[in-house]
């Protein structure tokens, strides 16, 4: 009888501990909000002039800029901005938020990785660099408010990536996209602006 009570008590303890660890956020502060300026290009780097505003965080980040791309991109990290090729052959930019074999979900505009809240500046919905509260207040009298609220309340069920897939999200959820991209479709890491 003592063994049964011990096993039941231990089971409750372990379940409680697993819930505590899954509720801890995944804090990721290694990625800078600032886009650096690159003066000298490595011989293998190339430039790409980008003309879409899906990465706008309030300063027209990346829009109408000549960017430096490093195709020798080996150490892929969460938060990296990458140039990739879409299925239609078009080139685009987005930020890596989930890595191979991770499970990503989105609940009311908040990204979760392996059931942990992604606690970083790109871990939740933005529009032109503003969070939901700030943007709704700014756009209080605008007609497209309903579609913007839908972006901030966007949810997606769990999606587990293969060992060759990444999940990319644009910094501006209203103007951008969210998609799975295979490793072989990533052209390179965007290092910054060309000076």
From TrEMBL:
Pfam families: Peptidase_S26. Coiled coil: none annotated. It comes from the Bacteria. InterPro entries: LexA/Signal_pep-like_sf, Peptidase_S26. One of its GO terms (biological process) is signal peptide processing. Residues 53-172 form the Peptidase S26 domain. One of its GO terms (molecular function) is serine-type endopeptidase activity. This is Signal peptidase I. It comes from Bacillus oleivorans.
